[in-house]
Amino acid sequence: MIGVALFDLLPEALALGAHTAAPVVVLGLVGVGFCGYMLLERGAGAAAESQRGRGGHLGPASLTAHSLLDGLGIGLAFQVAPAVGVVVAAAVLAHDFADGVNTVTLSLSGGGGTGRARGWLAADAIAPLAGIGVTRLFSVGEGPLGLALALFAGFFLYIGAAALAPASHRALPRLWTSLATLAGMAFIWVVVRLASG
């Protein structure tokens, strides 16, 4: 996720956003995306925690909304170029499995049974497709599209830096996860170079 943000989304955002805004504005939107996603995730987590054991739907609903945003990101990336869309779609799919597991966990821990958990899982699985479908209804000009990609780069940086990387370090020895992180970043760099070349 971090590699996609740094090597694919951010360069595209700077190139496309140059038609509309100065680089400092584009980079500022990356920061807004990072902080905005952090606040949404933490706020939804706190609200879900307060609903725990009382049949709360907020936790799984927030993850489903997150998956809808993932779909919007994929659709907008394909509007930039097919190569950008493929890279973004691969990054989203890489972390969406964990979103499905978390959706079920939050639904079950919120006091819901397996039926409700299956319903939220289905909604979470359909949400990215709905987001992609929504982007088929409109097209975005290059400048605004660059600004949207900057926002999504911030989302990806937060997901990678605050969720995925720390979770991998807790699960496995640090040397192996550090090497895997470096290998993943190098792999994304190569994929982006091949896709754009």
Summed up, what is this model?
With 197 residues, the chain is mainly α. The chain is built from seven helices and no strands.
How would you sum up this structure, described in words?
It is a single chain. The chain has 197 residues and is mainly α. It is built from seven helices and no strands. The chain has helices spanning 2-17, 23-51, 58-80, 82-109, 114-135, 142-171, 174-196. α6 (142-171) packs antiparallel against α7.
Strand fraction: under 5%
The portion of residues assigned to helices is over 70%
Low-confidence stretches: none
User: What about the largest sheet?
Assistant: none
Measure the end-to-end span: 21 Å
Radius of gyration: 17 Å
**Integer tally of domains:** 1
Q: What count of helical segments does DSSP give?
A: 7
Number of strands: 0
| Shape, principal axes of CA atoms | globular
Write down the secondary-structure element order.
HHHHHHH
- Class per helix and strand makeup: mainly alpha
Overall residue-averaged pLDDT value = 81
Q: How is the quaternary structure best described?
A: single chain
